[in-house]
Amino acid sequence: MRQLFRWHDAITIAGNYVAMVLLFIICASFSYEVAARYIFNSPTMWANALVSYLLCASIFLAVPDLTRRNEHVTINMLRDNLPPSIRRPFSIGIRLVSGCMCMFAAWFCANETISQYVGEIETVLEWQIPKWIVSIFIPYGFLNAALYFFRHMIEAPADGEEGAIA
Questions:
Q1: Where are the alpha helices (DSSP H) in the chain?
Q2: How many folded domains does the chain comprise?
Q3: Is 163 within a domain?
Q4: Domain range enclosing 120
Q5: What is the pLDDT of the chain when averaged over all its residues?
Q6: Which of 6, 146, 157, 161 is the most buried (most CB within 10 A)?
Q7: Is 124 exposed, middle or buried (0-12, 13-18, 19+ CB in 10 A)?
């Protein structure tokens, strides 16, 4: 199981690096668009579409790594005010619910992505591409986030704290 977890972590970390590269491309595209539009009075037809497509991919490639490192948004007021003996079961329950919700979202989004593929649906922006190419990253992100929530249930710290679990 340890080897499987290492592979899962490696794929997730690689996806996060791809997300970083995509964010660089997004910044470069917007910079080029601004220069082309306001300096050369020649706006592009592709920059806004490219940024929209890459933004979806970059978000859902980064989400699993945020979940792996427990760096997603949390509000710990309730957990922090619970007696120490209840914190661990509470944290495990929250992770279970979060993992189940992410699994549901992954299933729902995967079904929609398959429908887009089968129906040959294209995006509506100026630069049209098959919509499933953009959507495929959404179930990937939710599925891997769910797997990390389930892993964190098993690997939860003894005191129930939310800190990074390695």
A1: 2-38, 47-68, 77-80, 84-118, 131-135, 137-154
A2: 1
A3: no
A4: 2-154
A5: 89
A6: 146
A7: exposed
Q: How confident is the model at residue 165 (pLDDT cuts 50, 70, 90)?
A: very low
Predicted confidence (pLDDT) per residue in 57-113, tens digit? 999 999 999 999 988 777 788 888 888 889 888 888 999 999 999 999 999 999 999
164 part of a folded domain = no
Which amino acid is it at 68? Answer: R
159 within a domain of the structure (yes/no): no
What letter would DSSP give residue 164?
-
From 157, 149, 136, 153, select the one nearest 15 (Cα to Cα).
Answer: 136
Per-residue CA distances from 47 to 25, 44, 51 (Å): 10, 6, 6
Pairwise pLDDT comparison (164 vs 116), residue with the higher score: 116
**Model pLDDT, residue 45:** 85
Establish if 165 belongs to a structural domain.
Answer: no
